[in-house]
Write a structure and sequence with these properties.
Layout lengths: L2 E6 L3 H12 L4 E7 L3 H11 L2 E3 L2 H7 L4 E4 L3 H15 L2 E5 L6 H13 L4 E4 L6 H11 L6 E9 L4 H4 L20 H11 L2 E9 L10 E8 L4 E7 L8 E8 L2 E6 L5 E7 L6 H7 L4 H19 L7 E2 L2 H18 L3 E2 L16
Parallel strand pairs: 1-2, 1-4, 2-3, 4-5, 5-6, 7-10
Antiparallel strand pairs: 6-14, 7-11, 8-9, 8-15, 9-10, 11-12, 12-13
Helix pairs in contact: 1-10, 4-5, 8-11
The structure holds nicotinamide-adenine-dinucleotide.
Length: about 350
Amino acid sequence: MKLRIAIIGCGKASEKHLRVYKALTELIEVVAVCDLNLGRAEVFAKELGAKAYTDFKEMLKKEPVDVVDLALPSGLHGEIGKIVLRGFKKHLLVEKPLALTLRDAEELINLSERYKLKLVTIFQNRANLPVQKLKEFLEKGLLGKPLLISTRFYWKRDQSYYDSADWRGTWALDGGALAQQGCHFVDMMVYLGGDVEEVYAKMGTYLSKIEAEDLLVGTLRFKNGALGTIEATTCARPKDIKAEFVVLGEKGSSILSGFSLDRLEYLALDDGVNLSLDLSEKNPENPYGFAIYQYLKSAILFFKEGALAPYLSVGEDALKSLKVILALYESAERNRPISFPFRPRYCKLGRKPLA
Ligand SMILES: NC(=O)c1ccc[n+]([C@@H]2O[C@H](COP(=O)([O-])OP(=O)(O)OC[C@H]3O[C@@H](n4cnc5c(N)ncnc54)[C@H](O)[C@@H]3O)[C@@H](O)[C@H]2O)c1
């Protein structure tokens, strides 16, 4: 039987999902779609042969659905996800980040466990072949003990991007370069580097008229002893420059690059192994398309058959990177290092303005 999916939020991210779903009709059926903007919902409905709604509760009352795909402004994932799990008992596929507050993320995880529902967060870059290869090398200890785990992305998001939807760049619903674009990179740090012990960050809003930051620089200390840095910015002008993820280990080093960390630019070990060319040749032209296809297909197989691809972010896994994001913001707000475990007090991410 086909997996029955309903989409809530028919925006930019969902357009990518739509393309994947159209290519996987032997596995799934998108039965209904919902957006506050009826026009957008109808465009999606037409493409997918689904029914269009503007009220997700009405949709879930009427339609037979197995999985709900949430691609809403990030600050709504928690609130609406909880209603989907608690009120309608549906499996949940959530765009990154899982939620903006620890409380929301923990409640989503607890509800999914309580009702034995599957919860998958979309971190598609993990499915990139070079990332999987580097993970395998790290797990086998081929690079030796990691000393430095560092990442940076210099991207351009100008005012027209932030003005394209009123939730973008707000603390309540989005956050800035770190929470929105950077959550992929923080996820990669904990996916490949493991738990973080302490962070220290500075941030500022330099080029865009938004509440949150458009530039954050942070240092990290990992439990395994490695040090790390992150530079997260949407201030690159006149265009996107690059993204990069570096691991220096005792016995070897590696650099992932490409805007979505889809290229293995460099991997060299003391014993002479050098993998850069092999993997780069296997990388597809369109990294977003490749990874999102692979990732969503794996999520569908997990929902359908319980087959768990190693890169899927399931349940509490997504909490790890959220904690690091919150700690970096907390540190920048307080101008002091933050050690784990911690609960955010000054960090504004996900905080609703007082009425
Ligand atoms: N995985 C990725 O690489 C990736 C890329 C882009 C965005 N995202 C994530 O996807 C999510 C959505 O981002 P986007 O760029 O598509 O935003 P968007 O603004 O383009 O789309 C959001 C849609 O949600 C709709 N919406 C808002 N409230 C609603 C409600 N209560 N009920 C129904 N519909 C509602 C809006 O009308 C809008 O069409 C964000 O969490 C973002 O972080 C992930």
